[in-house]
Amino acid sequence: MSKLSLFLLSALLGCLVSGGAAGKIRVASTGVRVVSDIHEFAAQHPGLQIQQMEKELVPGKARAGSLTVRYNMGARIPGDALVAQTADTYEYPRAQDVSLQLTYPEKGKGAAVSYVELVCTQDSNEGTAYVVAGGIGQTLISIVVEAKNTKNFSYQAQYYGVN
Fold first, then answer.
1. Structural domain that includes position 50
2. What are the DSSP E strand ranges found in the chain?
3. Which interval of the chain is the signal sequence (predicted)?
4. Domain count of the fold of the chain
5. Which residue from 69, 101, 143, 154 could staple onto 89, CB 3.0 to 4.6 Å apart?
6. pLDDT by residue (tens digit) across 42-98?
């Protein structure tokens, strides 16, 4: 397990054990589906409307040789709260294109989503994130994240909403 994986796991477990507000947040361990090609995915789902998320490079956050990219959609509103978060790390033997699908909630009905933030660490600034189902103001959101030409990829996703 990489140092980053151990750090992320420690941070998540620390939040859960602390007993504060973060202790009530459900940390999802599934709900990730690998999508090899967004265009192929769209072709398999006729009528799919894809919304590109806002992208921002975050200077100085990542380890040497990596970049931090933040994707977000929506806005924090009065009365919303952190309703779920996920995180994972992937390491590959050689640089490649990485795509995955994140969905909130994993099953059942979730809170009405007000804001989503994905923070990705990767080896290049090439990539995008798209909402492919649900969205802001709805009780479901499904996002496809792409990172191009990377050996190392990690993400943290935070979902805010109103019950």
1. 29-162
2. 26-27, 32-33, 51-52, 54-58, 67-74, 81-104, 112-122, 127-134, 141-162
3. 1-22
4. 1
5. 154
6. 677 666 677 889 999 987 666 667 899 999 999 999 999 999 999 999 999 999 999
